[in-house]
Amino acid sequence: MAERFYCGEARGKVIVREGAERRPLDPRFDLHKHSSIGFAWGGSDSSAGSTQQLALALLADALRNDERASRVHRDFNSRVIPLFPKRWTITRSRILAYVDRIEAEHSKMPSDLKRYSSSQSPMATAINI
Length: 129
What we know:
There is one protein chain. With 129 residues, the chain is an alpha+beta fold. The protein has one domain (4-126). It has helices at 48-63, 66-79, 92-108, 111-117, 122-126, and strands at residues 4-9, 13-18, 21-24, 88-91. Strand 2 and strand 3 (21-24) form a beta hairpin. The longest helix is centred in the last third of the chain and has 17 residues, at 92-108. The protein is globular, with a radius of gyration of 14 Å.
């Protein structure tokens, strides 16, 4: 099976490449509509909603599990999306590694802190990958 690549191009366009196939990344507005304009990353013009939409879409596509993607996308948004430059490429396997790390840290977190991590608590955003 070929590795899947996610490529962020100028003006919020994200292309998914797997083998010879190329397609635009589905923003997954059906799961949650954080932004009406789509995706953004890596700059002062990036709105919080647009970066969260990107995180959700990347995770839903890479994980193929909408519930899991919805559960971790806020942490992924605060910890991974800010690392993206203007143009970027990330592999599905790298996304899965980040998710595994986030979920492992959540399982070690005291239960009273877990409920706040998905709402962007300072504790959750202070733990960096």
